[in-house]
Automatic annotation (TrEMBL):
Recorded GO MF terms: metal ion binding; metallopeptidase activity; single-stranded DNA binding
Keyword Ribonucleoprotein: no
Region (Disordered): 283-307, 528-560
UniProt domain MPN: residue ranges: 23-146
Keyword terms: Hydrolase, Metal-binding, Metalloprotease, Protease, Zinc
Name by which UniProt lists this protein: MPN domain-containing protein
A GO BP entry: proteolysis
Keyword Phosphoprotein: no
Highest taxon, organism lineage: Bacteria
């Protein structure tokens, strides 16, 4: 009998499903359904939820059923259904019949093993949830034990929401900030916990309110503006969240983004909580006109499904580059850009081109360093100041021209008092100077506390958004102008080098022509003198060359 290798087929066997009144559109929905199953169990039951790449549940599988206070969960059994289900991610869940949510050492070790195995197989672990009776639960991701990538959970079970892959709508909020050079990889301080613990939107908003109250002091406000200068593409809320948790952050990205760049978040590092958009798409039926397919309000026509997008937000976790290690990150902003700032005339030229009105240097009476003339629509800057002060003043007054022009404010239907206008202009100037490493030691905001007191969150946020958007527009615009100027200078230098090279070639050509002419002159002179050129014997009148050679040979023979 010949040897043979048996061939088998492995298939999933479907069990009766668990039903829910809510759509099964995310892992939180699966956990809610499983909670009803697990909460009343008198023994520990270990389950896995297999997820698609967008975190939608594929199915769930009961891995093992144990005793009152323990169960066996082997990685082989856990990943069996994940592989057969072609899962992109997995979520673990088990119950504690005792009602004590604190994870045991075995729970922690199992989670760490599954996390490590999942990374190797390309099926990462999103979270591990422990449930008990009622609405209580324990999230390993939320507690960071051990650090888990990818998802952030809210506090209450009925508000549970995971941060999944970036959707198309989220891509306008880049997690990777452009613009930091060398030195960004140095480890900084530890992440500071938010004032209100929890990653549900209610807790995050409460932390933001506390943060707003805290930043409006002279020193704290300046530090916040420095963070804003580095993260001007982020919303005010996220900029404030980063400043509150890690004020020295320079370059942040999500866990997966760092891995794609060849870097790994160090074990034990606490992430930075920010807010990310998570719009929800819903389908609803509406009546449409049979003729032109347009909606009709009176109910006449045929019905079709229309998709609507509901704005929604979720907690997301990012890490600063100082919390990672691995492959060096290429500088996204060329260093010569900051070096170009040292060229006062070049930087001032960039400001002039971005300003909506002309900038003129002149003598100004009194103590003012500059002003924006709304009538003449021009900016006047005091002559004779230091280069850095001239730049600061030019940026400050450019902000006034951009934000506080009378026609602009009337068109937007806004009225701002004098202090608000000065706060906005000075804050933008501080952000711009900080971004380009121009000395900001002369800036101070002693009146910021008085200005902010009595103003509601909406009004403060409006001003902060104005500052952020204007600073971002100037920082990006100045960067682009400086790049353009540097490219023009390089091109001009290359053309000058080429012209210099052509001049040298022409000069060498003239020298060679002169040398040839001189050589011809020498030859003619030698001919006139009857002197043969070097290498040819001198002719003697009356003696043929052949005869001379014979005489020469005879002389040599006699000499020997």
């Amino acid at each position: 009998m010949s040897d043979r290798l048996k061939q088998v087929a492995i298939r999933l066997v479907e069990q009766p499903p668990l039903y829910s009144e809510t759509p099964m559109d995310g892992p939180e929905a699966a956990v809610r359904v499983m909670h009803d199953l697990l909460a009343d169990m008198d023994r520990e039951v270990f389950c896995i939820v297999n997820l698609q790449s967008d975190l939608r549940p594929i199915n769930m599988n009961i891995v093992s059923v144990g005793a009152l206070d323990h169960t066996i969960a082997h990685p082989r059994e856990i990943f069996k259904s994940a592989i057969l289900s072609n899962a992109s991610r997995i979520l673990l869940a088990h119950n504690h019949p005792s009602g004590v949510l604190t994870p045991s050492n075995e729970d922690i070790q199992t989670t760490a093993r599954i996390q490590e195995a999942g990374e190797l197989m390309g099926i990462p672990l999103v979270d591990h949830i422990i449930v008990a009776k009622g609405q209580e639960y324990y999230s390993f991701k939320e507690k960071d034990v051990p650090p888990l990538p990818g998802a952030s959970l809210v506090r209450k079970l009925d508000e549970l929401y995971f941060a999944g892959d970036k959707t198309e709508e989220e891509k306008e909020y880049p997690l990777l900030r452009e613009g930091e050079g060398k030195g960004a990889e140095k480890a900084g301080t530890a992440t500071i916990p938010l004032p209100v613990s929890g990653k549900d939107m209610k807790s995050i908003l409460a932390s933001l309110e506390e943060g707003v109250k805290g930043i409006f002091t002279g020193e704290r406000y300046a530090e916040f503006l420095k963070t804003m200068s580095r993260f001007h593409r982020y919303s005010f809320q996220n900029t404030l969240l980063i400043a509150m948790q890690r004020p020295d952050a320079t370059l942040v990205a999500g866990y997966r983004k760092w891995q794609s760049m060849g870097r790994q978040v160090r074990r034990g590092e606490k992430g930075i909580t920010i807010v990310a958009p998570a719009p929800v798409k819903r389908k609803r039926e509406q009546d449409v006109s049979v003729q032109n397919e347009s909606p009709v309000p009176d109910g006449e026509g045929k019905e079709e499904e229309a998709e609507t997008v509901i704005p929604r937000f979720k907690a997301a976790t990012v890490f600063d580059i100082g919390q990672t290690e691995g492959r060096p990150v290429e500088t996204l902003e060329p260093e010569e850009l900051t070096d170009a700032v040292k060229d006062h005339d070049l930087f001032l030229k960039a400001i002039r081109e971005l300003s909506p009105v002309p900038i003129r240097m002149d003598e100004i009476e009194g103590q003012a360093k500059g002003f924006y003339d709304t009538g003449a629509r021009e900016i006047v800057v005091q002559k004779g100041m230091s280069e850095s002060q001239t730049i600061k003043t030019a940026v400050h007054e450019t902000c006034h021209a951009m934000l506080h022009d009378r026609e602009t404010m009337e068109k937007e239907g806004v009225q701002k008092d004098q202090m608000t206008r000065e706060i906005e202009a000075e804050s933008v100037a501080y952000c711009v100077c900080s971004a380009f490493r121009i000395d900001t030691s002369g800036y101070s905001f002693p009146y910021i506390a008085g200005w902010s007191s009595g103003r509601d969150m909406k009004e403060l946020k409006a001003s902060m958004d104005t500052i952020r958007e204007t600073a971002g527009k100037l920082i990006d615009g100045l960067s682009e102008k400086l790049r353009l100027f540097l490219a023009e200078e390089k091109q001009q230098a290359m053309e000058e080098d080429r012209d210099q090279g052509l001049f040298l070639l022409e000069d060498i050509g003239r020298t060679l022509e002169a040398a040839k002419e001189n050589n011809r002159y020498v030859k003619d002179s030698l001919k006139q003198l009857g002197i043969r050129q070097e290498g040819k014997p001198k002719e003697v009148p009356g003696v043929r060359p052949e005869q001379k050679r014979k005489e020469h040979k005879t002389e040599k023979a006699i000499g020997r």
